[in-house]
């Protein structure tokens, strides 16, 4: 079918040679060709067309050349038009109709149809069309609309199936089918179609009809194929775009619907977007979150009392571009706090840091659940113990024979019952113990201990059991001192020894050895029992995991002993593992560092003692600093120490509650630093307390800048009241609720508060306190821990559940010193503890002022103190 | 030497087992009370040598009963031992702070209960 058209090049003439000059194609070429034809008939013109040389001469050559030139111009103009349509960024549907129109109009064709390939259903589907004006073409299009063709069906089906252009000079030669019939019935004579490809896949077919019998020709084919290629590119692009849009839309839906707060973080550590959940969690519009540094986002709303220091992991990980995750307190825009779990994950693009993703979620519900679980376990264990007490007691008395003779068989049965009730008691104890240790509610108390002494104590404790089993206990006499919780160490050793005894044959020896190393000591308990299978060496540290399922019945263990050991060892930053001995038995090894870094793995966030604020203690005096820091620490201040001017100024930049400056003439003199601090943060109103021994004159000129002075040698109460004074807010009568059942004592406590600054109310019972708190919310609670109708613990529990009251400042006093665990149960807002007999009026007042100040958000405090602080 | 012990516990079974234990193992005289209020009046009337007091009781619990006993001159001198199934150390510390002589734990060993009491109170 190519007979006539093979000679006509697909490509424009590449060059026209005329002597030594080269002339590019297009219009100049046309002029040249005409000139050649007219004035140089003898000249041989070489046209390179697709590798073929055509030799022509005279006028015939000129006509051929002219036709080629015109066709080429025509095609180029068409191609320009198509490119323009494609480039106009209109929808593919609009663009395609225009392209079809341009093709038909420029060639004088009647209709063009686009068929879409639906590959998974193996069919072509009519998608769009253009028809020449007039009823015939409109009918043709109408009849094609909604039509589907299968592979090989009609012109388009054949093109799709054969994946190449097909040209039908006479439609009558086609096999009869409705679509072809429709074209014929509307006067169409010839038709052709080309595939539209994306990559090498046919995605559509373009079909053309003409009312005259146009024979297949290269020029027309080239024009439609070029248009089809443009269309394919456009389809591909719009497909990609669609996919990107779809992806974006899905991501947006995802980000909008997740409950976790998710923020994008840019290269500089600033939030670049925040999802609605983030906005909701932080109680601030998402737009206000964008642009904040990550640390600022989560901790920026913290009231000044709760400001974190330079060591805040979130702050550091963001600065260091490191991943971070954990639990922390996050602050809402109103300054209120909630416990949260967060993860900051850096994004590495080809190994280069390109930002991060921050996600966080509120876990207060989990906290509430944890508390519920604790209560549940405590109650259940109590409820289980009560009936067990009767059973155990009755069995004990019966089996002793003290109530009369019991037959041997009955004695045996009673022994079984007794052993099993003991086992049940151990199980309850262990469950409770494990829960208690793992929850972190009873933190370890680390102090220096001689490990050798601990080993001896544990061995002494186990001696009766070992003796009964006929097993020897041996230990070496190495003495090593480590920092550890001695009670917990004994618990570990007792568990390990008890296991060893249970599984050791009579007459064998169990040895305990200590091997001091570089960073810690390894303790080994070696037995010659039946040993542990290799695949169980690790599993036995899980809960209720024993080597043999029957062990718990035969050996009376709870199945929790090793889990308890591992938990305790981990809390000592150590490791515990089991090994198989070469000959017989097993060895349990415990590595304990000399100095553990205490990890209260899952210690509840709100159990951390809230400070009254961060105080910078700037003094070059190395002996004075620890002393003052300890005093301030005791009172709940967080102390940042600095010994040089650089350190001091760096700390000031971080933001502080107050600055304590030593003015003694030393390496670092407070008088010299003061102007620097003023310059550094001219708008800062951080109160500065000067500690001075001498040089009073000098202080005069700075007096306006600083809050107050405390004289050395230091008196704790004086320092605290100075500090409290510095933080005091004038013109505010604070409401104090004194909860005390003794009327006289309530009056004494009430009188401690100067009436010009305080309005004191008192409550005599838990119930009164509750109603008083609800009717007029106090600024401070002063609580006697021993109330008649329920102790202070109950009141604090109740307060914690009241949204409005959960962060009230609280001063607790009691007739005795409270333990750390008890104190932890009593924390509300800023909380302090006083002992009844030791309380001094100034102390209470200073404390109360400090607590009132620290319970207010920073902004408010600053606003209320326009005349104080550094100008 | 015969001692007179008042057991205050709302659980009848425990009262009985503990009573039986002290009577049979140590040959002590035992007075039983099933509530804090009953215990207090028994203590006033019978003047026992020691009181074994349960912690979790309805109406008036162990600590409340103890405070009442201590505030009444007729019973303030009688040593009190708490008998409790609460083993959490926070609870223990709270009880210890009340000023009781000792805290004994449930379940107890009926064969050594009297020895435990004697040891705590320094009875020979």
List the helices and strands and how they pair.
The complex is a heterodimer of chains A (about 850) and B (about 120).
Chain A: E1 16-18, E2 21-23, H1 27-39, E3 45-49, E4 52-56, H2 58-87, H3 92-107, E5 111-118, E6 123-131, H4 135-144, E7 148-150, H5 154-162, E8 166-168, H6 178-185, E9 190-198, E10 201-210, H7 218-257, E11 261-265, E12 271-274, H8 276-282, H9 286-289, H10 294-299, H11 313-320, E13 324-331, E14 337-349, E15 352-362, H12 364-400, H13 408-439, E16 447-450, H14 451-469, E17 472-475, E18 481-484, H15 486-503, E19 509-516, E20 520-526, H16 551-555, H17 561-571, E21 575-580, E22 586-593, E23 613-618, H18 624-634, E24 637-642, H19 645-654, E25 658-662, H20 670-680, E26 688-692, H21 696-702, E27 708-711, H22 716-726, E28 734-739, H23 743-751, E29 758-763, H24 766-775, E30 780-784, H25 792-801, E31 810-814, H26 820-826, E32 831-835, H27 841-854, H28 858-864
Parallel strand pairs in A: 17-19, 23-24, 23-25, 25-26, 26-27, 28-29, 28-30, 30-31, 31-32
Antiparallel strand pairs in A: 1-2, 3-4, 5-6, 5-10, 6-7, 8-9, 9-10, 11-12, 11-15, 13-14, 14-15, 16-18, 19-20, 20-22, 21-22
Helix pairs in contact in A: 1-2, 2-3, 2-7, 3-7, 12-13, 13-17, 14-15, 15-17, 19-20, 22-27
Chain B: E1 4-8, H1 12-25, E2 29-33, H2 36-46, E3 50-54, H3 62-71, E4 80-84, H4 89-98, E5 102-105, H5 113-121
Parallel strand pairs in B: 1-2, 1-3, 3-4, 4-5
Task: Explain what you see.
The complex is a heterodimer of chains A (871) and B (124). Chain A is built from 28 helices and 32 strands. Chain A is of the alpha/beta class and 871 residues long. Chain A folds into seven domains: 61 residues, no CATH class; 155 residues, Beta-Lactamase (2-Layer Sandwich), CATH 3.30.450; 105 residues, Beta-Lactamase; 72 residues; 125 residues, 2-Layer Sandwich (Heat Shock Protein 90); 118 residues, Response regulator (Rossmann fold, 3-Layer(aba) Sandwich); 122 residues, 3-Layer(aba) Sandwich (Rossmann fold), CATH 3.40.50. In chain A, strand 30, helix 25 and strand 31 form a beta-alpha-beta unit. Chain B is an alpha/beta fold and 124 residues long. Chain B has one domain: 3-Layer(aba) Sandwich (Rossmann fold), CATH 3.40.50.2300. Helices cover 44% and strands 19% of the residues of chain B. Chain B is built from five helices and five strands. In chain B, helix 2 packs parallel to helix 3.
């Amino acid at each position: 079918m190519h007979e006539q058209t093979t000679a006509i090049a697909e490509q424009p003439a590449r060059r026209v040679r005329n002597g030594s000059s080269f002339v590019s194609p297009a219009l100049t070429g046309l002029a040249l060709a005409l000139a050649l034809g007219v004035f140089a008939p003898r000249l041989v013109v070489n046209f390179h067309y697709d590798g073929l040389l055509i030799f022509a001469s005279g006028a015939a050559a000129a006509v051929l050349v002219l036709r080629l030139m015109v066709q080429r111009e025509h095609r180029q103009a068409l191609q320009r038009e198509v490119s323009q349509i494609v480039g106009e960024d209109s929808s593919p549907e609009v663009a395609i109709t225009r392209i079809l129109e341009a093709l038909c109009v420029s060639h004088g064709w009647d209709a063009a149809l686009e068929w879409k390939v639906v590959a998974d259903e193996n069919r072509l589907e009519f998608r769009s069309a253009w028809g020449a004006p007039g009823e015939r073409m409109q009918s043709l299009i109408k009849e094609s609309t909604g039509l589907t063709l299968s592979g090989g069906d009609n012109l388009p089906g054949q093109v799709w199936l054969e994946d190449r252009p097909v040209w039908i000079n006479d439609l009558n030669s086609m096999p009869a089918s409705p679509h072809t019939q429709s074209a014929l019935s509307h006067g169409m004579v010839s038709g052709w179609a080309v595939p539209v490809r994306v990559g090498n896949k046919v995605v559509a077919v373009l079909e053309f009809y003409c009312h005259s019998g146009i024979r297949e020709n290269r020029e027309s084919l080239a024009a439609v194929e070029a248009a089809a290629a443009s269309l394919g590119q456009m389809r591909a692009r719009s497909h990609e775009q669609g996919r990107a849009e779809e992806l974006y839309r899905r991501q947006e839906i995802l980000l909008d619907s997740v409950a976790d707060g998710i923020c994008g973080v840019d290269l500089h550590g600033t939030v670049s977007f925040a999802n609605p959940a983030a906005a909701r969690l932080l109680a601030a519009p998402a737009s206000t979150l964008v642009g904040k540094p990550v640390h600022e986002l989560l901790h920026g709303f913290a009231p000044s009392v709760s400001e974190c220091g330079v060591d805040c992991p979130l702050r550091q990980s963001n600065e260091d571009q490191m991943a971070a995750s954990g639990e922390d307190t996050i602050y809402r825009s109103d300054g209120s706090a909630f416990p949260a779990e967060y993860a900051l994950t850096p994004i590495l693009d080809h190994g280069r840091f390109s930002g991060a993703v921050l996600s966080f979620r509120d876990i207060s519900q989990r906290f509430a659940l944890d508390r519920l679980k604790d209560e549940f376990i405590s109650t259940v264990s109590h409820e289980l113990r009560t009936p067990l007490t009767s059973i155990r007691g009755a069995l004990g008395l019966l089996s002793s024979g003290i109530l009369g003779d019991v037959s041997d068989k009955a004695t045996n049965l009673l022994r079984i019952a007794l052993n099993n009730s003991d086992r049940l008691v151990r199980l309850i104890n262990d469950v409770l113990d494990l829960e208690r240790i793992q929850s972190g509610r009873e933190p370890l108390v680390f102090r220096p201990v001689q490990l050798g002494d601990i080993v001896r104590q544990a061995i002494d404790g186990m001696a009766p059991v070992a003796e009964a089993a006929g097993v020897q206990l041996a230990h070496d006499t190495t003495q090593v001192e480590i920092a550890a919780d001695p009670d917990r160490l004994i618990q570990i050793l007792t568990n390990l020894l008890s296991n060893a005894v249970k599984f050791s044959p009579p007459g064998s020896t169990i040895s305990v050895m200590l091997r001091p190393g570089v960073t810690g000591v390894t303790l080994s308990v070696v037995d010659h029992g039946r040993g542990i299978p290799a695949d169980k060496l690790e599993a036995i540290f899980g809960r209720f995991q024993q080597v043999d399922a029957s062990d718990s019945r035969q050996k009376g263990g709870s199945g929790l002993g090793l889990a308890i050991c591992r938990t305790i060892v981990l809390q000592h930053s150590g490791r515990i593992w089991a090994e198989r001995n070469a000959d017989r038995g097993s060895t349990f090894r415990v590595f304990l560092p000399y100095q553990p870094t205490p990890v209260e793995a899952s210690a509840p966030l709100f159990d951390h003692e809230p400070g009254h604020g961060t105080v910078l203690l700037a003094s070059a005096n190395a002996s004075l600093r620890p002393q003052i820091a300890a005093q301030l620490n005791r009172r709940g201040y967080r102390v940042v120490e600095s010994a040089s001017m650089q350190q001091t100024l760096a700390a000031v930049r971080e933001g502080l509650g107050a600055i304590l400056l030593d003015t003694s003439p030393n390496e670092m003199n407070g008088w010299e630093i003061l102007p620097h601090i003023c310059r550094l943060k001219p708008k800062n109103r951080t109160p500065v307390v000067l500690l001075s021994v001498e040089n009073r004159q000098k202080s005069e000129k700075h007096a306006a800048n600083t809050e107050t002075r405390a004289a050395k040698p230091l008196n704790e109460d004086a320092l605290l009241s100075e500090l409290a004074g510095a933080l005091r807010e004038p013109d505010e009568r604070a409401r104090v609720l004194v909860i005390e059942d003794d009327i006289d004592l309530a009056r004494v406590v009430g009188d401690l508060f100067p009436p010009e600054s305080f309005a004191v109310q008192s409550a005599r019972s838990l119930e009164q306190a509750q109603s008083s708190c609800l009717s007029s919310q106090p600024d401070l609670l002063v609580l006697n821990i021993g109330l008649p109708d329920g102790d202070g613990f109950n009141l604090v529990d109740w307060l914690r559940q009241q949204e409005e009251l959960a962060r009230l400042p609280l001063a607790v006093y009691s007739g005795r010193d409270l333990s750390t665990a008890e104190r932890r149960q009593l924390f509300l807002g800023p909380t302090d503890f006083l002992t009844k007999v030791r309380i001094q009026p100034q102390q209470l007042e200073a404390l109360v002022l400090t607590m009132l100040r620290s319970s207010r958000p920073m902004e408010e405090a600053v606003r209320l103190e326009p005349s104080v602080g550094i100008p | 030497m015969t001692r007179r012990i008042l057991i205050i516990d709302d659980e009848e079974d425990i009262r009985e087992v503990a009573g039986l234990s002290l009577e049979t193992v140590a040959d002590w005289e035992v007075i039983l009370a099933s509530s804090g209020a009953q215990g207090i009046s028994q203590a006033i009337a019978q003047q026992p040598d020691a009181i074994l007091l349960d912690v979790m009781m309805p109406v008036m619990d162990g600590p409340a009963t103890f405070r009442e006993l201590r505030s009444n001159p007729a019973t303030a001198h009688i040593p009190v031992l708490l008998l409790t199934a609460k083993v959490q150390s926070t609870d223990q510390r709270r009880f210890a702070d009340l000023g009781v002589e000792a805290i004994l734990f449930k379940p107890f060993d009926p064969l050594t209960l009297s020895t435990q009491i004697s040891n705590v109170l320094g009875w020979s």
